[in-house]
User: Fold 2-acylglycerol O-acyltransferase 1-like from Diabrotica virgifera virgifera.
Amino acid sequence: SWLRTFQEKLRKHIGLAPVLPIGRGFFQYSFGLIPRRCPVTIVLVGEPMDVPKLDNVTNEDIEEYHQKFTKHLIAMFEEQKYKYVEKPEEKKLVIE
Assistant:
């Protein structure tokens, strides 16, 4: 969307992405800063990931477990998004 493009360009220039609070007002529901009413959903984490305690941790070890964690996180998101997200086919998890 144009808003996302604007946020990304501004983030590259100043280092922070602007957050535009969109909600409802005190006396009307069309615009404002108060969050809109929506149910709170609690998502429990998936299966545990085994990470051994290492005496000498190398950058390769960190990268290996970071990759494993990222794969597990994306798989869990893809599995759960159909329960909790509107239009799940259009949503994907991006980890930079």
